[in-house]
Give the backbone structure.
Amino acid sequence: MTQRVCVTGAMGKAGRAVVAELREHGYHVAPVDIRAGRGTGTLEADLTDYGQAIEARTEAKADAVVHLANIPAPGLSTPAVTFNANMAMNFNVFQAAAAVKLSRVVWASSETTLGLPFDTPPRYAPVDEEHYPVPTTTYALSKVASGDDVVGFTRGLLYAGSRSVLSSLWKVDDRSTKELMLAFYRRLGDVDKAEALRQAQLEVRAHTPQPFYWAAFTLAGNAR
């Protein structure tokens, strides 16, 4: 049976790429965005409203959610609006997924959590996954704070009955993530999830050694 995937922020730059990629690989996509383009089949919903987040998930009848909806950069709205809106959207989507016992959620964070564009110099270079977050904008801070939410959200999903949760720790690169996910799913029939993720990360790392491109995803829960 074809899996249904709800993609939030589906009309954004990353959202359009994810929707196209999922459809190319045979998934039924239920796109959601705060502004739905005419004729796109996109459900219009304001995810800062928890009721709309629940209804969007119910309407989509999805087996998984790819959550990309956020104010996508600093400077587009006032700092307070950026932080509050992004935090509300992230929490509402995570909570809605946990409430309906959704077993698969993918969330994009951001490289800005590490301090990019480095107006304040990094602690060391090259920056790797061990570098602690240094958010210098409320946009980056919303990603760091939501990352803390994700830890609790992951526990909530597992408590609600999800077997496992695969999530990203920062905003990922489209091209390398596409390669990593395809490699991951190719291996799932032969090895367990943890080993499939490890092998997929090694495959990407072989030609793209920078951790930013392959180390973002973590698996929690049952690895089988």
Summary: Strands lie at 4-8, 28-33, 43-44, 64-67, 105-107, 164-168, 217-221. Residues 174-224 form one domain. The longest helix spans residues 138-160.
